[in-house]
Design a protein that fits this description.
Length: 376
């Protein structure tokens, strides 16, 4: 309890010492190759930002009077990347271990936007991320969907402060209560979340609207999660097991989703082919960094390795942007370059799926979150 109070005081002190971020300025990115994701690429296009929103995009768009024109000829512009599961900035522990079913726990309550790891991640190209909890409980609580904080921003911007409910299907995590002790017990405990009359109405709406993020250990856990979701009217998003080819048919039939990652070069090639297998079966694919366990910068490396394993590059880019936005219920605001959506943008030196390309500028809600030296 004392530790929690100290963490809260520290967060309030950090917020009090910060200055409000400057309002978003109006500007236009001119001359870049624009990859809207939701529509065809635009060569040497123009993208106009006003009041933090995309105001115009196209090949023949004129820069309005009074709007700053920024020449980004030769660069590539994409929507900001979306990380489907990380622990960035979470303070005071990743899970409540006393109660195996922690329905009142919210990841948003422990998020510190001033954490050093947050500042180090601004150059990754990620502009929205899902705060996932640890596996200290069968149902550790609610995730949160948050924008990457820009420098000097006092309050984080949550797209969903109380996001998808998180659950763990697999080896039961350690709990101070000592229960459950088996996969059977864990499954029964999770079913109780929606089967119990006292919680069904309150939390059933959240699960059906925003789904459930399920951490797993192996392919059979994924099939169990999908079947549970089908019984309760939703398609889960699973993460944590790299090779899910054996579960592809079940995942695809349910139109469920998988957040793959992080991948690394030490893994066998069959792991890299799993995203393509899920898509071929009809499932949806996104990516997760699990930062700060690994660098958030490794998110697109996982997508690049999935391309190496046979995933279509266009599907991989969608899996970094629009697909995760759809999964977390935020596609009306982020995930693609469309008029009216938030101006969450990344300017790249080249193809974003080529690891020889680098991030030149990251923009969140029309504000520069990070820029490379010389691109300020």
């Amino acid at each position: 309890m004392i530790r929690s109070v100290c963490c809260a005081v520290a967060l309030l002190a950090s917020a009090a010492s910060a200055q409000p971020s400057a309002p978003p300025r109006d500007f236009a990115l001119v001359g870049a190759r624009l990859l809207p994701v939701g529509s065809a690429p635009i060569e040497r296009g123009t993208l106009v930002v006003r009041d933090g929103k995309i105001a115009a995009i196209g090949a023949n768009v004129s820069v309005p009077d009074g709007v700053e024109s920024i020449d980004v000829s030769g660069a590539v512009v994409t929507p900001g990347l979306i990380d489907l599961a990380c622990h960035l900035g979470l303070t005071g522990g990743l899970a409540e271990t006393v109660d195996p079913i922690a329905l009142d726990v919210h990841a948003a309550d422990a998020f510190d936007p001033f954490a050093k790891e947050v500042a180090r991640s601004r150059s990754s190209g990620v502009t929205t991320f899902v705060l996932a909890l640890g596996d200290g409980a069968v149902v550790p609580g609610h995730t949160a969907v948050v924008k990457m904080p820009v420098p000097d921003q006092i309050h984080p911007v949550f797209l969903h402060r109380a996001g998808a409910l998180q659950a763990h299907f697999g080896t039961p995590p350690a709990s101070a209560t000592g229960a459950p002790t088996s996969r059977l017990g864990a499954s029964a405990a999770i079913r109780g979340v929606l089967d119990d009359a006292a919680t069904r109405e309150a939390f059933g709406r959240v699960v059906r609207r925003l789904g459930m993020l399920v951490s797993i250990d192996r392919a059979s856990d994924a099939t169990a999660a999908v079947r549970f979701g089908r019984a309760h009217g939703f398609a889960p998003c699973v993460f944590g097991a790299p090779d899910l080819r054996d579960a592809a048919a079940v995942i695809g039939k349910a139109r469920a989703a998988v957040a793959f990652g992080p991948f690394d070069l030490a893994m066998p090639d069959r792991v890299y082919s799993a995203p393509a297998a899920i898509v071929a079966a009809g499932g949806r694919v996104g990516f997760a960094s699990l930062a700060p366990r690994t660098r958030m910068h490794d998110l697109r490396a996982t997508a690049a390795l999935a391309v190496r394993g046979g995933l279509d590059p266009a599907v991989a880019l969608r899996g970094l942007t629009l697909t995760p936005a759809e999964i977390v219920g935020a596609a009306t605001r982020v995930g693609s370059l469309e008029v009216g959506k938030d101006a969450d943008l990344v300017v790249w030196s080249g193809d974003p799926l080529s690891l020889t390309s680098s991030v030149r500028r990251v923009i969140v809600d029309g504000r520069t979150a990070w820029s490379a030296k010389g691109d300020e």
